[in-house]
Amino acid sequence: MKRTSVIAAAAVILASTWQCETKNNNSENTGTDSVVAAAVEITRLPDTAFASVEHLVFEVVNADTVTPAEIDINLNDYSGVDGIPVFRGTQRRDADMHGTVKGTPSRIEKVWTFRTFNPSSERNKWGSGSGWNGQPVLVHWPDSVVERFRREGASLTDDFAADEVIQGSLAGHVYFINFETGKASRHHFDLINTVKGSVSLDPDFAHPTLYVGQGIPCGAPFGCMAIDLVTQKQKFFHSDPRSWRSWGAFDSSPVVAGGFLFWPGENGTFSKFSRHDGKIALHTALRFKAKGSRAGGIESSVAIYRNYGYFGDNLGNILCVNLDTMRPVWHYNNHDDTDGSIVVAEENDRPVIYTGCEVDKQGTSGACYFVKLNGLDGSLIWEQKIPASRWDTPDQHFDGGQYASPLLGRGDCEGLIFVPLCFTTSIPKGEFFAFDTATGEIRYRTPLPYYCWSSPVGFYNENNELFIFQGDCAGNVYLIRGKTGEILFKERMGHNFESSPAVRGNSAVVGTRGNEIYRFDVK
User: Fold this and answer.
1) Would you say 145 and 208 are in contact if contact means Cβ atoms under 8 Å apart?
2) What is d(CA 278, CA 375) in angstroms, rounded to the nearest whole number?
3) Over pLDDT 70: what percentage of the chain?
4) How does pLDDT run across 184-231, given as a tens digit for each residue?
5) Taking the complete model, does pTM exceed 0.85, yes or no?
6) I need a surface site. Which of 39, 54, 242, 345 has the fewest CB within 10 A?
7) Which structural domains are found in the chain, ordered by start?
């Protein structure tokens, strides 16, 4: 199953040279002189497969044999977008959200509350606000797009403005909100089926398009779709009738990279779509499973570095996929359900990834394995095994461990990565962790009275000091000093913050499992 080329061999050598600082290497060794590789400038990561891929059974189906398959790795698709267009802000999901504050903030204030529709239907079982992972899009539309919206309708209200919040909801609606006033900027779009995941905005404003995945079926059809934001009508719908898993939800948030759209599904299929003149079509589909196992569903959102994509599934499989060929590059087994999205970082001109698992398949007790992996070959750099529990009730169970996506520290927190974990001490409590990115050492763990599924976001002051906004599942919001873990502010201000915030200036916009979406200001 190995495929190599000259440049592939060079990249493998670079990876193996780097292995002197890692452990549990699961890659192949070419045995070629690494001095030769050091002279090779690598732009496109290689089309190769490491030995770990042999643990997989997979198929790649090419639906489009006309459109070229290679992505443009030099294309920063979101460079012209003012706002937070995708889950965790970037293709790498590294949450570089540019939140800013002055001095040392001491409080969080509620600026506005937007109330969502409360349906009297099957959807009502899920509430009507927003659930996990549920991050909104924040966008500042250019004047030319605003003029087009006004000229061509776009279902606008009198409160439409260039600064817009777009939020999917458990009510099965997409809501459009004026960022400044908190009032509806457009009439909501009814998707029928419940939305749990994060909506995603296409960066091509010549064809304003919103991508939405459905989470719970309340009617047919059930899958993922694209909405034309000019006509406010559905222009694309997709499900995979040949998937290896029957559950067709899309909690994963799609991302545009190199001119293509990439979207994993809970049906176990990782899909690549072409985008031309506002039209979307399936290009290639990858279906996979570990040998001796069933196919797993993908709820994490794919993180991308150059032409490699990284994601985890609910059986603990971590995959790196070559986005040109849609074939696996490496596979890593991280023990259990992985829902929190992977974060990619570049260290010494090479990709590394951070990810952690839940306590689900392990039973009522187990561990969250929070790991740093070599992004080139999937070898383990370090691992923290943190004991945690699963919370079983008569009706359902709640997994311990990691649901949130980690936050990389910058400024005075350079070299740290942060993530909240569930049920690491007792139920229903959680802890907020800071790990050393070089060694994996736990720099601190701040106890929290309730568990957190919401992902942390950061605000920096004029001295480049980091302050972290965190919500929990009891409706509390926290302001945490990144360097020390000190809680500067805590107050119950909503109902169950499962959703992740999006940041603009000193503001965070986030929804709750109730019927409310909030804008908070950090002061």
Assistant:
1) yes
2) 32
3) 90
4) 999 999 988 889 999 999 999 999 999 999 988 888 899 999 999 999
5) yes
6) 39
7) 6-522 (2.130.10.10)
Please tell me the predicted confidence (pLDDT) of residue 104.
Answer: 97
Most distant pair of Cα atoms in the chain: their distance: 68
Determine the residue type at 471: G
Sign of the CA dihedral 361, 132, 222, 125? positive
Confidence of residue 123 (pLDDT cuts 50, 70, 90): low
Q: What residues does 138 pair with on adjacent strands? A: 84, 165
3-state secondary structure 39-106: CCCCCCCCCCCCHHHHHEEEEEEECCCCCCCCCCCCCCCCCCCCEECCCCCCCCCCCCCCEECCCCCC
Two tokens at 59?
Answer: 């198929």
Strands (E), 296-379: 303-305, 308-312, 317-322, 327-333, 343-347, 350-355, 358-359, 365-374
Angstrom distances, CA of residue 383 to CA of 19, 72, 204:
15, 33, 39
Contact (Cβ atoms closer than 8 angstroms) between residue 417 and residue 423: no
Name, in order, each residue with C-beta under 8 angstroms of 154's C-beta and a sequence gap of 6 or more. 148, 160, 186, 229, 230, 231, 232
Rounded Cα distance between 322 and 8, Å, is 12
C-alpha 444/C-alpha 311 separation (Å) is 27
pLDDT over 90 for what percent of the chain? Answer: 83
Q: Which residues pair with 311 in a beta bridge?
A: 319
- Cα angle 9, 13, 16; round to 5: 135
C-alpha span between 97 and 458 (Å, rounded)? 7
